[in-house]
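--- STAGE predict ---
source: upstream dedup step, 1 unique chain passed
mode: sequence only
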Amino acid sequence: MPVVDVQPDELRELTGHEDKSDDEFKDDLFALGLEFEGVTEDGAFQLEFGPDRLDRLSVEGVARSLRYQYGDARGVAVPKTNDPDWTIVVDESVPDERPYVTGAVVRGVDLDDPALESLIQLQEKLHATMGRKRAKGAIGIHDLTMLKGDVLSEDASGNSITYKGVEPKGDTFVALDSNDEWTPEEVLEQHATGQKYADLVRGYDRYPAIYDEIGLFSFPPVINGRRTEVTTDSRDLFVELTGTDQWTIDRMCNIICYALAARGATIEEVEVEYDSGTVVKPDFEVETKHVSHDRIETILGVELEMDEVIDLFERSGMDANAELGDEIVYEVSIPPYRVDVLSPLDLVDDVGRAYGFNELEPRYPDVGTVGERHARSRLEDAARTSLVGLGFEDLLNFHMISEEENYERMGVETGTSVLGGGEPASITEPYSEDYTMLRSWVLPSLTMVLENNTHRAYPQDLAEIGHVAHRDDSENTRVAESRHVAAVLARHDATYEDAKSRLTALCRDFGVELETPATEHPSFIPGRTASVVIDGEEVGVMGELHPRVIVEHDLELPVAAFEFELSALQ
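--- STAGE serialize ---
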């Protein structure tokens, strides 16, 4: 989780609580969920943050949360914005891989050294978290006085800059921390920051770039130009963000604007001109979500009055209105800088923190039960014990597998009705070609173990009780999941009878009736294959593995096997 440096003197100034001691701040911050990790050489608190509250990645955001906690601020606060004087024109040459842009003009900010350090830290922490190391969103902050805007038209007032694509060996500019004029390609090759983020744009035909009337001044998401560098003398800023997702960069922009507004700055809107139309940024829209009074009380375990809940929401930086009906439901307004409120549970968490989790009294639940192992877990343990008693070595394999191993090498076709032949529960973006789906049966995993252990002594009697899954559109998740029992016996004299005798003994241990009518399965030898029918229900298959499967896995001995649904033993 991110660690942020926060100066306690800055907290005193921004909260207005000059009398607070360091220890008092530490206690108050812990109540907000911020853990104290130590002190830097210059006396700053090192605070570890939960990944949800990205609005607290700066001292300004932490101070805002403390002011709400102290009761000095209440409800949703939205900065006032001035009408736009600047426009970002999105040119058709912008790379398709990074099409979105947003921004704001910030005027009258007082950037002393601590404020500038906080702004830089916020920028980098947002890059590392919400911006996914600049891949999803990147922030550029510029000294507005160093920009020369293009005139939009003879009829229109205001200034414009252009977000466009540039050839790798195209226009030159002087990057931050450099004195040389380089093309974008040279920046990626010779500048330390360019080398660090080169992979983000290296495959593009044209690189993202932002121009004013003078020329190229920003090369997102890599580096800004030196001409517009922000210093402690800067008072008016231009904030621009580019990325692959409009919602993400809009919320990153909101967090920055709120931090600068806390320093006394005025936010000025910016128009963004796409081919599809013009939009106004920053997006300070206040969203609403709903949560019931009963759900708040049930989860927190306390009884609250309706007015008390509304007060707790306001002390969390939100507004709430109660809607009366069969039950009390709160319509809660979410401030634009909160990117973490996704469900009613997030609202309950805010109420709980405002109430004070230390104020909650622990109590035993009003039920007459105690914790114990789940019935399925007990069944699984019992089956595993029986298998070990029958001479099998217990295994635990990966639940993920490739389609080649699950189907092709076992001779099974996808979508057939045989055991293991269901439609695959595929991984959308697999990390490796070896793990592209959840296995639909366990025997492929066991045969892979045999394949990897041909150098070991025989006999090899292996068993596993494991998770399987296949596509099923009738399920809410579109995936049907279950647990299977599977076993293999690899030895020079392994036969159908060996598999059946072990399976019969296992079923006898659980008091269930086993039948084995003849059947066919592509992984087994015809005439030496049977269905596993337990208490009248067909739940699996058993027999001798087909020579094709044996050869495919480089095995030199016959293999007898069985597999069935664990639930059949209940």
